[in-house]
C-alpha cells in the first residue's frame, strides 16, 4: 500500500522549511509526497529575501491535478500568505472533502519576515480553523489566534480549549518558544490533554522545526495512525532532527531530516 500526503505551502529555496521540509519528512516516513505551492520564497539560513505569491489559478490547478488523479490520504497546509489564498485553499479542501487536514498556522519566519499578512489573520481563523483536524500553533501563533497572553502551562491549556471551541478538532501546541531547558508539547482532543516533554537542545539550527514536526504528523495520519501515535512519532522525528543538525549555512541552519531514520533504524512505522 502506498500512502500519499499533499502539502499546500510555500517554497523555501534554502530547503529547510516549507514545501521542501514537508516533502523530505513525508519521504523519510515512507509516505509519497505531493505539493501545491502557494508562494515562492527566496530564503536561506540568514533569512527571507523575497516573497512571491503564486496566481490563484496556479494554486487551484495544482490542487485539482492532485485531487483528480492522486487523492491524498492526508493534507497539510503551511504558508498561505493572504486572504485570497486562504479562501481558495479552504474552498478546495471542502470541495474535495479532505478530512485528515493538518493546519500549521505559519505566520512569521524565525528571522521576522511575515509569511501571513496581518490583515489575513481573521480570514485564517474563519476559514481554516473549522477545517483543521489538527492545528499545530507555536506559542506566539496561539496567542495571536486566541487574543490571550500565554505564559504558564495552564495558559497553554486554556488557549488550546479556546482553539477547540473555534472549530479545531485536535490542538497540538508546540513548546519551542516556552521558557527553560525542558520543552513541553501538548495535545488537546476536546476531552483530555496529553504532554510530550523533552530536553531543549542548545542549538541555533532550528530553521524549519515547525514545518517538519507538522509534516511528520501528517505523514503518520496518512498511514491511518491515531492522533496520539502521530504526535508521538513526530516528536521523536523532530528531536532527532534538531539533535543531529547538519551545520550548513552561516545563519540558522536546517534540521536533519535523515536523523530519525538513521537513529531509530525505522522501516515504515
Ligand atoms: N531547541 C530545541 N530542542 C528540541 N526540540 C525543539 C527545539 N526547538 C523546537 N523544538 C521542537 O520542535 C517543534 C517545533 O517547535 P516550535 O519552535 O515551538 O515551533 P516553530 O518552529 O513553529 O516556531 C516542537 O516539537 C518543539 O518541541
Ligand atoms: C516557505 C516557508 N514556510 C514556512 C516557514 C516557517 O517555517 P518554520 O518551520 O516555522 O521555521 P522557521 O521559519 O521558524 O525557522 C518558512 N520559513 N518558509
Automatic annotation (TrEMBL):
<dbReference type="InterPro" id="IPR029056">
    <property type="entry name" value="Ribokinase-like"/>
</dbReference>
<comment type="pathway">
    <text>Cofactor biosynthesis; thiamine diphosphate biosynthesis; 4-amino-2-methyl-5-diphosphomethylpyrimidine from 5-amino-1-(5-phospho-D-ribosyl)imidazole: step 2/3.</text>
</comment>
<dbReference type="GO" id="GO:0008972">
    <property type="term" value="F:phosphomethylpyrimidine kinase activity"/>
</dbReference>
<keyword id="KW-0067">ATP-binding</keyword>
<dbReference type="InterPro" id="IPR013749">
    <property type="entry name" value="PM/HMP-P_kinase-1"/>
</dbReference>
<dbReference type="Pfam" id="PF08543">
    <property type="entry name" value="Phos_pyr_kin"/>
</dbReference>
<comment type="similarity">
    <text>Belongs to the ThiD family.</text>
</comment>
<keyword id="KW-0418">Kinase</keyword>
<keyword id="KW-0784">Thiamine biosynthesis</keyword>
<dbReference type="InterPro" id="IPR004399">
    <property type="entry name" value="HMP/HMP-P_kinase_dom"/>
</dbReference>
<keyword id="KW-0808">Transferase</keyword>
<protein>
    <recommendedName>
        <fullName>Hydroxymethylpyrimidine/phosphomethylpyrimidine kinase</fullName>
        <ecNumber>2.7.1.49</ecNumber>
        <ecNumber>2.7.4.7</ecNumber>
    </recommendedName>
</protein>
<feature type="domain" description="Pyridoxamine kinase/Phosphomethylpyrimidine kinase">
    <location>
        <begin position="12"/>
        <end position="256"/>
    </location>
</feature>
<dbReference type="GO" id="GO:0005829">
    <property type="term" value="C:cytosol"/>
</dbReference>
<dbReference type="GO" id="GO:0008902">
    <property type="term" value="F:hydroxymethylpyrimidine kinase activity"/>
</dbReference>
<dbReference type="GO" id="GO:0005524">
    <property type="term" value="F:ATP binding"/>
</dbReference>
<dbReference type="GO" id="GO:0009228">
    <property type="term" value="P:thiamine biosynthetic process"/>
</dbReference>
<comment type="pathway">
    <text>Cofactor biosynthesis; thiamine diphosphate biosynthesis; 4-amino-2-methyl-5-diphosphomethylpyrimidine from 5-amino-1-(5-phospho-D-ribosyl)imidazole: step 3/3.</text>
</comment>
<keyword id="KW-0547">Nucleotide-binding</keyword>
Amino acid at each position: 500500500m502506498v500512502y500519499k500526503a499533499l502539502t499546500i505551502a510555500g517554497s523555501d529555496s534554502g530547503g529547510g522549511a516549507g514545501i521542501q521540509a514537508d516533502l523530505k519528512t513525508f519521504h523519510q516516513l515512507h509516505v509519497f509526497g505531493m505539493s501545491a505551492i502557494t508562494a515562492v520564497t527566496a530564503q536561506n539560513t540568514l533569512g527571507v529575501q523575497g516573497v512571491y505569491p503564486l496566481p490563484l489559478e496556479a494554486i487551484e490547478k495544482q490542487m485539482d491535478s492532485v485531487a483528480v488523479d492522486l487523492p491524498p490520504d492526508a493534507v497539510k497546509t503551511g504558508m498561505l500568505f493572504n486572504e485570497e489564498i486562504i479562501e481558495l485553499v479552504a474552498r478546495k479542501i471542502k470541495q474535495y472533502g479532505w478530512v485528515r487536514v493538518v493546519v500549521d498556522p505559519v505566520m512569521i519566519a524565525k528571522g521576522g519576515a511575515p509569511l501571513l499578512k496581518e490583515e489575513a489573520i481573521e480570514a485564517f481563523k474563519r476559514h481554516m480553523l473549522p477545517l483543521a483536524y489538527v492545528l499545530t500553533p507555536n506559542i506566539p501563533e496561539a496567542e495571536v489566534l486566541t487574543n490571550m497572553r500565554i505564559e504558564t502551562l495552564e495558559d497553554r491549556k486554556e488557549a488550546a480549549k479556546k482553539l477547540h471551541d473555534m472549530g479545531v478538532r485536535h490542538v497540538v501546541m508546540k513548546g519551542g518558544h516556552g521558557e527553560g531547558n525542558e520543552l513541553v508539547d501538548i495535545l488537546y482532543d476536546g476531552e483530555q490533554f496529553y504532554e510530550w516533554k523533552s530536553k531543549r537542545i542548545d542549538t541555533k539550527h532550528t530553521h524549519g522545526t515547525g514545518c517538519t514536526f507538522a509534516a511528520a504528523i501528517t505523514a503518520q495520519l496518512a498511514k491511518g495512525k491515531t492522533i496520539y501515535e502521530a504526535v508521538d512519532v513526530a516528536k521523536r522525528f523532530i528531536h532527532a532532527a534538531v539533535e543531529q543538525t547538519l551545520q550548513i549555512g552561516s545563519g540558522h541552519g536546517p534540521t536533519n531530516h535523515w536523523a530519525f531514520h538513521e537513529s531509530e533504524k525505522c522501516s515504515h512505522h
